[in-house]
Amino acid sequence: MKNSTLFANVVLAVAVVGMLSSCKSKSNETAVKNTENISNTQISGSFTAAWVNIDTLISKYDMYFDLQKKLEEKGRQLEAEFNSKSNEFKRQVNDYQNNVQKGLITRSEAQKVEQELATKEQELYRVQDEYRAELADEQQVKLRQIHKSITDYLVEYNKTKGYHMIFSNTFGGQLLYGHPTLDITKEVLKGLNENYASERNSSNNK
After folding, report:
1. Which of 12, 30, 96, 124 has the fewest CB atoms nearer than 10 Å to its CB?
2. How many CB atoms lie within 10 A of CB 19?
3. How many domains does the chain have?
4. How far apart are CA 100 and CA 78, in angstroms?
5. Within a domain: 63
6. What does residue 168 show for φ and ψ, rounded to 5 degrees?
7. Of 5-19, 62-76, 168-182, which has the strongest mean pLDDT?
């Protein structure tokens, strides 16, 4: 097998932003369909909106850092397990090559060992793919956890604010401009971290 790193550094932030942007697009599509179905419905009061800078939010959200750390630990664990299996395979290959060079095994024995080593190599590739899939699945779960924590908080946050819409803003995103007075990023970040700290303390005390 080629000597290569099994896992790259795990980065959640870009994926989280992508997930939030994707959900925003789907929400916009749903909003358009709902508007078509209930075109006579009127918004009570003056329309109000705000926006959140997702890049800033994620970069300073404590939950993101904790989940990122757990994901990196998982990656290191799987990589260590794989490297152990890979090193054992390399040892067996070296032993086989030394025996062949020294003429310590017959041609038929060498063919049998080669077949066994080929099977073990394929098994290593299978394990590598399995570990990568496991890590990717773990990442998706953590993405959903971060996304849910943000959207759940915004629902509660907006019960007292009463915004009709809260937009997400990210570099290269759909929101091209948001007036600075409508930026609620710092306020939302503060609330998110306070909520997360409370939940973490409650979990540690159990």
Report:
1. 30
2. 17
3. 1
4. 33
5. yes
6. -105, 140
7. 62-76
